């Protein structure tokens, strides 16, 4: 194990409870955070989770237990929202049932409350979705930290867009290509077509209702832990510390691996599928495009089929993780396609060990939906991105990596892009093939971006090493929580 900065010593371990939401990416990121806490000498992390979601992280927890760095689980039933047993997160729920997962999250308030009252941990790190924990925490004299798996840039952009939300809704056609200028940002001007803004910003839905509660919970809580590293987005981190949180800790990339602990990253969130890594071993350095759109986004069958042809026509090596179409079936795969691409393309149905793949020397580009975790993992592995955002904050994230940082290129800029499935065009195969072959051409722009991505990877590594910004921020968090525990204990004794 790499040596670690050691925070202040305490007599007893700091008991930290972590509560992830029901999104696979958030569950994995929070488990990574729990691991970073567990390998510190003076923290005892416990994750509060539901049964099927616990199975996702069990392999990681088993490895930690073998190392003598256990993370405890406190399992409570998944709320009854009309889903079959075992369906407890966005990745496994059909798109038509996604609202049930969000409803289940909202129904967790009583169970969280009773667990926290019964166990009274020293600190709670709860996902951004669980705004109510901020209300319970002071009553129990426990500091509440918000965990924000996406980075600082999307948070600042969304918060600032929310300030002008009524203008956006009243003045603009919400399906249009008309651009909105994001107010009060440092750095280059960022403007975004209305059609690429998250739907909760431009129309009323459950998240629009929750947004103010989430923002207030974040501001009123003890502080915020963000999965990012300072050098990735320094000007936005500075602004965030000043205006967006009482205390901010930038502790990522939480999934970072120095490569020496392969078992953890191979088993992260899945069953340790290693055949794809063997396949990558047989490919030339930097020659493979890794294609994956996160844990829950959906494509139409028409789009999946077009993507299959596009990858075939690019003539380049590819490793494509496919989660099915609208109905999670694979009937859209073109006839004899797998046979034709066999020598240079591998398709994985289901779950892939993404971090291990991105670390592989054969991977030279990542076609991604711009989920924050995927972008951060690409940054920490030095892989440039071909961007294809789909929903939510992904078009915002794309702007940081492509326009501000300059180590990514858009797959397609023609036609209608946007966050609404029914209103966007199918990206044509010729555009996909062209974008991939151009990006992978030696000596071209792709090479420049590969170099820039390598620089970013060096910065991510430095941040996570002893004395680096993320390592120091995590230690500062622990020190601050230990100090707060001391204050709470003292005031409880005085109150006796
Ligand atoms: N992931 C993975 N294997 C897969 C698909 C996703 O390991 O086959 C992981 C990936 O490494 C990342 C997370 O799932 O940590 C996806 O998070 P992101 O924020 O990119 O997207 P989301 O799933 O929230 O859309």
Walk me through the structure.
The chain is of the alpha/beta class and 496 residues long. It is built from 20 helices and 15 strands. It has two domains: 14-257 and 465-493, 3-Layer(aba) Sandwich (Rossmann fold), CATH 3.40.50; 269-459, Rossmann fold, CATH 3.40.50. The strands form three sheets. It has a seven-stranded parallel β-sheet, with helices on both faces. It is globular and about 75 Å long. The protein starts with 13 loop residues before the first strand and ends with a helix.
How do the strands and helices of this protein lay out in sequence?
Blueprint: E1 14-19, H1 24-38, E2 43-49, H2 51-66, E3 72-75, H3 98-106, H4 109-119, E4 123-127, H5 133-139, E5 144-148, H6 152-163, H7 165-171, E6 179-181, E7 191-193, H8 199-202, H9 206-220, E8 223-226, H10 234-243, E9 248-250, H11 262-267, H12 275-281, E10 288-292, H13 301-314, E11 317-322, H14 337-341, E12 345-349, H15 354-359, E13 363-368, H16 372-381, E14 385-387, H17 394-404, E15 408-410, H18 429-440, H19 445-464, H20 469-495
Parallel strand pairs: 1-2, 1-4, 2-3, 4-5, 5-8, 8-9, 10-11, 10-13, 11-12, 13-14, 14-15
Antiparallel strand pairs: 6-7
Helix pairs in contact: 1-2, 13-18, 16-19
The structure holds uridine-5'-diphosphate.
Uridine-5'-diphosphate binds at residues 23-25, 28, 255, 268-269, 292, 294-297, 321, 351-352, 354-355, 371-374, 377.
